[in-house]
Specification:
Layout (H helix, E strand, L loop, with lengths): L1 H17 L1 H7 L7 E6 L6 H5 L6 E6 L13 H12 L4 E7 L3 H7 L8 H6 L4 H10 L5 H20 L3 H8 L4 E7 L6 E5 L4 E4 H4 L1 H14 L1
Parallel strand pairs: 1-2, 1-3, 3-4
Antiparallel strand pairs: 4-5, 5-6
Amino acid sequence: MPHFAAGVIRFQNEVYPAKKDLFEKLSKGQVPEALFITCSDSRIETAMITQTDPGELFVCRNAGNIVPPHTNHTGGMTASIEFAVCALEVPHIVVCGHTECGAMKGAMDPAGLDSLPHVREWLGYSKAAVDIVNQVAPDASESEKMRLLLEQNVILQLQHLKTHPSVAVRLATGKLILHGWVYDIKSGDVNAFDEGKNEFISVDARYASEFAAMQHSKSCSA
């Protein structure tokens, strides 16, 4: 804990003064560009991966970057999604999985979760992804199955998102775009789901046209 407290002091003395204008602006409200749903894993640092400042991402984290399908039961994820989409009107939602995910390892072997009943129940929201992997790649190696599961779980959670009324309405009116990512902890690579190709490709390839438009806009305004 002294390490964390020392970090707070460094933030107050060094980081905050350099970004004082930003924090004064944020004190008046937030206008995040995206709802970013990712895993609770301590190795995932959303601001570092995306190189974003405070106020740019509305972040929701849980074991396995899971989005339960919509029901009348009120849960933390459901309420947060509704708030981000309806109140903050985020134009993007990202579901980001990652390599070496303990939750996905648990989903692949639910029998090993007998001592963690709530975790086992929570990971039931990933069962369809596990079933897909076992059906389409029964003879694959364990590492290959895990990589495929990471991707299939992200795709499944994107499908779950579409069952939420707030998301469905914004998608239907063209005001919201969904994104599926998988982050590789060891290499730093991020692959994004290309719905047209039905596969995960590198982020630079997936958003090449957007990057080009952004560069063109910068050159025109220079």
